[in-house]
Amino acid sequence: PLEFDSQEAREVLSTRPDPKKQSLSTLRDMFLKEKQAEKLAIKTLRGHATHLKTLEDTGWDAYQLRIDLQAQDKADSTVYNYMKDIRTFARWLSKHGVVFDIPDISKPRRTRTRDTFTSEELHVIESQPMDETAYWVTMICMHHGFRQGEPLQLGYQDVREVHGYWCFDIHERT
Questions:
Q1: Which helix (H) or strand (E) holds 168?
Q2: I want to staple 98 with a disulfide (CB 3.0 to 4.6 A). Which of 93, 108, 114, 130 is the partner?
Q3: Closest among 142, 70, 147 to 112, alpha carbons compared
Q4: Which residues contact residue 70 at a Cβ distance below 8 angstroms, ignoring those fewer than 6 apart?
């Protein structure tokens, strides 16, 4: 039996039907309600919900989901986060007597190699005629490792001075 600090969590769990007799979609909903009762961060709950909905869309095949995500060229960290959330759900199912194949999240990650610009290529890029916005977006991407388009999401509040140095303060806004 699971123990929680809040009365609300105990009430949710005490009214839960037998997990062994439920569909995986219903079990997913029960899992998410339980996690919500545990007062997980909203971002974490959204991640669980999104990742488990995507798993449902593959017919609850975690291995196929991994292949699909990699085929979509998702970042290794994204694939890892999906698998981690699915593994959490699988462990929750197992605790409740439901057998679900837990995906291996410790497989070696793909190695992505990206070509770097040569000095000559950088000189050609920097010498191209550009308007002021294109120039600064290009410079920020080249010198700070941003992906294309990321500098366009910056606002004035993302640039600040720290100990006498100007920097980007990248943070999630709520």
A1: strand 165-168
A2: 93
A3: 70
A4: 79, 110
Judge residue 82's burial from the number of C-beta atoms within 10 Å of its C-beta, 0-12 exposed, 13-18 middle, 19 or more buried: buried
Q: How far apart are the first and last CA of the chain?
A: 35
Each residue's pLDDT tens digit, 42-60: 888 888 898 898 888 888 8
Q: What averages of pLDDT result for each successive group of 10 residues across the chain (174 residues)?
A: 44 52 79 86 88 86 84 86 88 80 58 75 85 83 79 85 88 63
3-6: long-range contacts (C-beta < 8 A, 24 or more apart)?
Answer: 4/37, 4/38, 6/37, 6/39
| Angle, in degrees to the nearest 10, between helices 42-57 and 24-37 | 170
Count, residues in the chain: 174
Q: Which helix (H) or strand (E) holds 166?
A: strand 165-168
- 125-145 confidence digits (pLDDT tens): 888 888 888 888 888 888 888
